Amino acid sequence: MPQGIRTRRTREPKSSVSDAAFDIWLRRGLHRMFDDVAREPIPPELLRLIEEDRKK
Predict the structure, then answer these.
(1) Who's near 7: CB < 8 A, 6+ residues apart?
(2) Domain count, the chain
(3) For residue range 8-38, what is the model confidence (pLDDT) as tens digits?
(4) 32 by DSSP, 3-state: which?
(5) Distance between CA 31 and CA 50 in Å, rounded?
């Protein structure tokens, strides 16, 4: 999971251990599924659209 993204939970303190375990499980699963996609280069067409929008 990207740095800086945190989930907000309002549970009792005793569940903090299970919350931490869930966060680790979720982070690892998301990394397994999406790291390769996140490393792919940005398509030139998308970069062109972004640059055009910046000029507006």
Answers:
(1) 23
(2) 1
(3) 655 555 678 889 999 999 999 999 999 999 9
(4) helix
(5) 26
Range of the domain at 25: 15-54
Q: What is the model's pLDDT at position 15?
A: 75
Pull the structure tokens for residue 50.
């972004």
Looking at the domain assignment, is residue 34 inside a domain? yes
Query: Which of the two residues, 13 and 56, has the higher pLDDT score?
Result: 56
CA 3, 7, 8, 13 torsion-angle sign: negative
- Report the sign of the C-alpha dihedral through residues 45, 50, 55, 56, in that order: positive
Q: Are 6 and 26 in contact (CB under 8 A)?
A: no
What pLDDT, on the 0 to 100 scale, is given for residue 17?
Answer: 86
